[in-house]
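Researcher: Before we compare anything, I want clean individual predictions. No alignment, no superposition, just each chain on its own. First chain goes here; please echo the sequence and then give the structure tokens.
Model: Echoing the first chain and its structure:
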Amino acid sequence: MKVPYSWLREYCAPEISLADLEQRLTLTGTKVEAIHRHGVGAAEGFVIGKVLSCGKHPDADRLNVTTVDVGDGDQAQQIVCGAPNVAAGQTVAVARPGAVMPDGTKLKKAKLRGVESNGMILSEDEVGLAGERAGGIMVLDDALAAGTPLVDVLPILDDVIEFEITPNRPDCLGVYGLAREVHAATGAPLAAAPWADEGGRDRITGYVPGAHVRIDAPELCPRFTARVFENVTIGPSPRWLKARLLAAGLRPISNVVDITNYAMLLTGHPLHAFDLDKVAGGELTVRRAQDGEQVETLDGAVRTLDSDMLVIEDAEGPTSIAGVMGGARSEVADDTTRVLMEVASWVGPNIHRTSTVLGLRSEASGRFEKGLAPEQALDAQIVATQLMVELTGADVVGGTIDVGPFAKDPWPDATIRLRDHKAAALLGLVIPRTRQKETLTALGFGVADADDGLDVTVPGFRRNDVTREADLVEEVGRFDLDKLPATLPKRRGTAGRMSAAQRMRRRAVDALVGRGAYEVVGWSFTEPGVADRLRLPEDDPRRRFVALVNPMSEDHSVLRTMVLGSLLDAARHNVARGNADLRVIEQGAVYLGRDGEPLPHEHRALGAVLHGRLVAPSWGDDGAPKTADFFAAKGLLSAMLDTLRVAWSVRAATEPFLHPGRSAEVVVHGDGDGDEVVVGWVGEIHPLVARAWELEGAVAGFEVDLDAVVAHGVAVPYFQDLTSFPPVRQDLAVIVAEDVAADAVLGAVRGAGGKLLRGVRVFDVYRGAQVGEGRKSLALALTFQAPDRTLADEDVAPVRARVVKALASQVGGELRG
């Protein structure tokens, strides 16, 4: 909110600099966002002038050559002026050479069509005072002396304070409310409120001559006030009023419209003026809109409403959207002579919803949605009435229409006990009771002494913000923040540590980053079409997306069920920008919808995608570059799982988004016999899926349920002696059918090897005449080791025999001679 400083000082003028005031208000919570200068660049070059003569320019029909007395004694200045209304004998505003105009232009002596001009005779627009009705130069009071500084006559220069008002303080959305804050913060005297005069507060029912108001939705309209004005003369507002509106960021239009804006800025409560002759039947009704009902608003747009919105209608239908914007049909125009001034109170959440659904923000809706007090309605009426009579020559007809639940039964002000010990306990500082009373009284609260503190009566304009004792403690504390002791928090129990699962997850990511992968952070949101691009079947559980109620866009309308889509998005983004050789990883939450369950299944997944070459090109390359494939992805997966000390294996499996024959599922093994869990997949991405993401060549990757992997990992390893007693290695070649997986062979060996078998791996594969068609020979390296002795042949022999027997019985293997 922008407030001209001169306007604020009319009600509270502290004897401190503007910079000090800015700091003090910000410390109290009334944050000053910025200080602006409105108007001309400097006041020195702007003075009052007297036009001594005026004649036509010899070479330009639309220019006049004038001589102007600007207070330099007998030395009048020649000024060329293009305004059609300039004439000898006028008192005018003059900008002398060197003056800085509102747009930053520095005025210089000039020649216009060969005639020298020593300044400029000013219009309202040229000093920042113009509205919609500007035209011609300003003609001022003849009583003004030549050379008088223009700033002493017109508001051409002012400081403007821009406040950042928090949503809980709608009372600070008015100049007087901010003056009250300045009064409390500085102790400077506070002038009486501009509506303090009780005259004109006579309230009647819903009727005055020529006007009638009825409320059919009292639950959404606590109070509706209206006054009728006749003999209204529409015209431009005085310059002081236009200057204040412009400085506050509003555009002057006409005196009646400007009065509504001025009263809103002063009191904080919006108003709306109806042309009473355009109100059909002279009757206004507040009701809920009908679904699909339409109304044309002041901005010329036609809005479609629903039954949760409020309208104000006359005998011909809706004429405005309550609390948001008036209608075009009843707006004030140049021929208006009768005005109905409406100041109503609306339920804030309803106005917020209406404004949001319609996408229509206004100065009024921005205030009403924060919850204005019904008491403020009549305050704004009084201010508007004073200005209507003064500036438009209007006559007030009858009393004040005042209807609604609040008008019938005003809400009582709440009284809250503020205890001394409670204030001291919450603030960490004892603020004397006299100081508490001083602060609360300055803020408009009623205060009375109590045995253990103060009984504080909350005024209506703070009703929604101050509801409990702690709120009062905040009020008395925020004005003495500089006195609060600066202390460090207690350290006991405040040190943050990662849990074991968090350390394991970080260890997994670090292991992949250490192998050259880059971690990315993608959206948890995606679009339902990603399931089709991943070729997921209709019955696949990964199609059970959780839809967002209020998505940012169609591309982010559901929660993801896999991180693969996000990783492929990152790969496409990089490849499109020339970074084709990449390894990207991502860990994050994924969500699977569950039938009949209110909440989805959520777990943390970790995935990787590899694309392009695995090794950077070099002049020493002597063959085809090694590119991403199944084994590269499996190697990266192995680095991560082995770092977590997870017992794992892979076995052939298919996924719709993976290349047939180049895919596997990832299995982790527990300590118990047969305890294994499928935690993910690894393989090459199906070419059709890669093409859907505009990726050329082989793409490989993996994705695992990181929570399940961590649950099977070893967070704290135990010491094992690996060097005191040397291992024994024996090689074994076993012939098996071609369709027997190497993992099945290794599983049979591990199962039979017992505790002495330290490890087993395949180091060679042979296919050929020596083993026969449809068969293959796997060369296995077996490592045996005991923790307490050096093994002899007689220790290893029976274990080897069990292994050979298991190979024969479980996978049909036979030793190769």
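Researcher: Okay. Second chain, same rules.
Model: Second chain and its structure:
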Amino acid sequence: MIERCLTTATVTRFSRTLLATAVASVISMSAMAEPMSEAELIDSIEEIEVTGIRRSLSAAADMKRDDARIVDAIVAEDIGKLPDNNIAEALQRVTGVSINRDFGVGSEVSIRGLPQNRVELNGRSTLGDDRNGVDFQDFPSSFLSAVEVVKSPTPEMIEGALGGTISMKTVRPLDLKEPVTAMSLDAEYADKADHWAPIFNASAGDIWDLGDAGTLGVTAMVSYQDRTLRRDTSEVSLFVFDDIDINQDGVVNSADAALNTPTGHYVVPTEHKFEPFTEERERTALNLSFQWAPTSEKGNFYLDLNTTDRSGGQEAYSILHAGENPVATADSYEDANGALNNYRAESPVIIPKSWSEFRETESSSFALGGEWDFTDKLKVSGEISTAESKSNQPRSEFNWRAIDPVAEAANPSASNEYRPDADIIVSDGSAPSVVYVGGNPYLQTENLAFREYRARTRDTDNEEDALRLDVEYFQPGDLEWFSSFKTGLRVTDRSYERSESEYRVKDIHKNLRDADGNPIVIWQDDIAALYPGAIIVPDVTGDAFEHAGIAGESHLTEFSVYDARQLQNQERTFGMVQQLLAGTNLASTGNLSDNLRESTAQYAFVEEDTFAFYAQANLDFENVQIVLGGRYVKTELTSTAYNQAGDALVSDKGEYSDFLPSINATIHLSDSTLMRFAGAKVMRRPDFNQLSPTFEFNSDLITADRGNPNLDPFRATQFDISLEHYFGEGNMVSATIFYKDVSSFLKDTLYCADLPDEVLSNQNHSIPGNVCIRPSGSGDSASYSFTEDPAELAAYVAEGRNGVLTTTVTNGQSGTIEGFEIGYQQAFDFLPGLWSGLGVNANYTYSDSEDPDGVPLQDISENSYNFQLYWEYGGFGVRLAYTFRDNFLDETGQKRTARVGEQVSFLDPESSDPTQGTDFRDDLEQWDLSANWDINDNFSVVASINNLTAEPTVNQSITGTTWQVRETDRRFNLGLRAKF
């Protein structure tokens, strides 16, 4: 448990008297207050206990000051009380750290713009679905006593962090000074989901004196959370057109050219989609720690157990159209980004669908270790640990297609699609308006035909076994300046396996035949009559983009669909579909598990063995401390997947070694001012999904993602120089200059993949312009084209030239990141009376990055800053926090912007423009407000509001045209804390 610290009065007698008078005035307002003399009051002020946010910041400053590395930290105010209820949201307050959010909740952390970080718990690995470690949403912040962000590594630290290491620390049992029990119960309200969620945390710890048997300490922590969140998403695909008759004179010529693009072509937001997501998350976590020390106090041994069970799912509706032809109207105009605004979308395909994805994740870790002082100079420590994360993710889709029933009855062999025109109004930063001629087609249930049903299940298993042994020898050769020499080794056995199975019946509206071979259609009205309650009109219209706004009335926000909540029950929905298709050519037998077929193209198995050895010297020359040495790492990798035909497993083996030298030097310029220098080589292995050559297809087999088993790891050389000044009680100002030269960084690239007929035979060709076309006679091709003509696409398909537009990962050449950080925190305890409770914590980071093509590196904002203003006095506390990061490159191969680069070149994805397909996240900012009241020594009340102003998240192409808008909940929290 964090030790309590006491302030020392350093003000003049005049200031003391003024402060005492102010405090006395406050105390006198209480009828129960006992009268005190001025001398007694001054003495009591000198022993005021620092609590709350101020204590947390003061302890974090002490950790930074005392560390040999360049480190920033957050510290729990008390057991079970990290300053924020989410680890990522707490870390965003740290200098140099920025975050991304999932459903408005902090999920991903970047250190100086780099998301490739290592997440540890008490110095060992944590596991999630991939390389980065545990998802911060899956690990309770209440378990932690502190979190360090280590930006300059030492040789003893485990390799694998490109940006830095996030080191989470729990309370160690033998650190307890007394028995402790702490509990909290919160109610969290999400405004868009209109849901109250319970959050419960409890911690208990004690130590026992066993006499000659030593001392035993035990801590136990449990956390439970059950929340429902909502997110509205608007997306478009950005196409480039060169035939827009903007002046409507009936002729497309130079007078119609776009004025704000280099080529004169227009960027047109098409394929409009509205997706309201509702996500349920239930999480139960348990942490147990046992620690024993002998009476000799020569060492200690520990056993740590941690488990988290997360379940829940997303229910969502994708209300979209596609395949339209944009036509200018009298209201059309070109905006400053070269985008066409306010146009008529002719003949779009109407494609509403329901989908659901459930997730069950079990993660656990076990560690047994200890340390022993064999002599006054020799200490040996070791640990054996194992960690595992297993996830099961079922997903289902129930899709529709708008069909004209009159035309269908007249000629069932024709496509008969109902394709009403729509008027589009675009507004940057808000959702576009889509209004269809002839009324809302998503409510015309008599026109909606059952198109497709899919049921999929994915299993992911991520495991690591690790053995670590460290030896430290103090003052070798009795040299006073040689504090210690440390060496050690670590070996790991890591495995990652992903498998997927699927049942799919597609194009039902076109292919369904009755027992006599006659074409039939299953209409939405038929299902509504046969299965009451299966078809619903979700109540999302009133609060759809209530904060971001919609450009005008939009038919996309009101729709009739299959109930996604029922879709979560895969067996039940499969049974319904089975009944609907009984007696037809698409009938099936057995249950769902009997009909699931393994998707061999998506199987991945990666085995990774590592060996690491390090040597580290800790030197102390009075006012100069140095930590230097190196770490040697060897990695052996085997990646297994099915061959392209899908009938045999094949493996690729790889091996590489790295030597990672590092130095950390601290110079004490004075008792309160430090200068630090750090230099290191670091490496980061690719994520497992980036290493597997398997495909992850979208539902229409139009696009895919694929890994690359031949990837080299990230490698970088980095340097830091910092200056830190400490003053008063926990006050600090710091500045750091950093430089990182990244070699072999990873980059997303697009190509048109040549796949077997068994895959391409299921490809959806109803929207020709989305299907990539390869050059004649080629296999996979980085050169490809598109066609908007259905007949022309059919001819290409007959020639076998259609492919799947695939994003893969390749090693780039190099890139640099350079910049500086400034941090400042101060408690204004020198002010009189109530004002003495004020304090501030602020930081700013500037990062400049560039790859050889002149494109910024991913996820790096040039400017980011955080500001916290707090006030704590007499048991009351209030904190207002603001965080900001400016726009950054989110992806380099986003398919919805694949046709748009700075040059705005028509249907030429393989132009010389390296910015094509880039996607930028617009400026992000958020205000958070929290307050607390300590009722007495045992109980306190807390309240908070996250995302006070309900800021949306907006993504744009490099030209500045918005393609995605997301809006999430504001979260209101009210809770009770107890500690005994």
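Researcher: What stands out in the second chain?
Model: The CA atoms of residues 328 and 343 lie 5 Å apart. Additionally, DSSP finds 13 helices and 45 strands in the chain.
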